[in-house]
Amino acid sequence: MANQMKVRGITVEINGDTTGLQKSLSKVDQSIKNTQSQLKDVEKLLKLDPTNTELLAQKQRLLGEAIHDTKDRLDSLKTASEKAAATKDNYDDWKAKYDPIKEKISETTRELKNLRICSHRRLSNR
Q1: Of 40, 75, 84, 110, whose CB has the highest number of CB atoms within 10 Å?
Q2: Chain segment 5-30, per-residue pLDDT in tens
């Protein structure tokens, strides 16, 4: 029987098959992509009018959403990793799937750190 977990509305099934994890992450990734697209649009508008307080507030809100979504992605990856490690019965399958998950955790951690730095810079520039 497969191990199943639910993280903030995301169900991940671990049994050597990461299909459920990939589907869950694709939803979070789509949300992150949409937020990043909106951030780019706001950045373009801010170049034209850097003192527009509405745009600055919108940018801060979008950065907050990006941080939240990226943290959710990181939490999902970490939980999936822990669940995979707990299923030692399928160690070979787990090991084959663990390395890509570990790399995604590292990438997402770096992205979250960069978003937080950007958000803090924006707040300190006010």
Answers
A1: 84
A2: 444 444 545 455 556 667 777 888 88
